[in-house]
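Continuing the batch. This is chain 6 of the set; chains 1 through 5 are on the previous pages. Same settings as before, nothing changed between runs. Recording input and output for traceability.
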Amino acid sequence: MVRRSTRVKAQQREAAFDGNVTRVTSLGNTTGDTDFAADERDRPERFRGPEPVLPTKWWHAVHHALVLSACVALQVRSRTGFFHSLFLTAVMLWYGDAYTAVLHCALDRAECLKVKILNGAARGFQAHHEFPYASTRGRGVYRMVCDTHRIQIITVASALLFGRWTKMTARVCLMKLVVSAYGGAVGHFYAHGGGGSRPRWVKVMQKAHLLLPPKHHVGGHHVAPHGINFGIVNGWSNRVLNGALNDKTPR
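Output for chain 6:
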């Protein structure tokens, strides 16, 4: 069982005496969930609920199949394989987490709600603070992976427009999709995925910090004012970026 941090316990004690805070039971079956089960309760404040769970489309599945096929092709046809080297893999694991941290921090800003093109994504990130279970376990891991479809298309289009058309460009682009998009969705989902309900391989990867550990995320970012630990892949970048990213609006 993972123990709650001192900061989380203090926040709970303060909230217990706040008559203005409405408590709502979390969605999903929490049987066997030992990691921050009490801290994961939904706290509606600014939002009435999380973003609606839209049905996945056939083109999502096609997109995932194409990404997988490209990764396999690169592994088979490239002399150095998909990962190329341990150094590049480590760099992309850190960079991929840092990318999600910067994006997360930006979309956590209330100002993004006023920008039409950013409103939906910003609302999803900000409502998640109040509905952590409903916006992760209530959506399902495949739906969360599909939610990254648009940013993946933007990433691929940018690589085609601005990058060199080489195997290395393809490799870096695909590694960014695998780490930031797929790794971010899976890492974030299982950081809220409860104790007993997580597959063994997830627990192993979380313990090794290859996927985002629940204590690191829930015990850090989900403590008000939500100003630290923005990375949602594995948390590697947070030690460095916590000094630069926060919940304050730049002036």
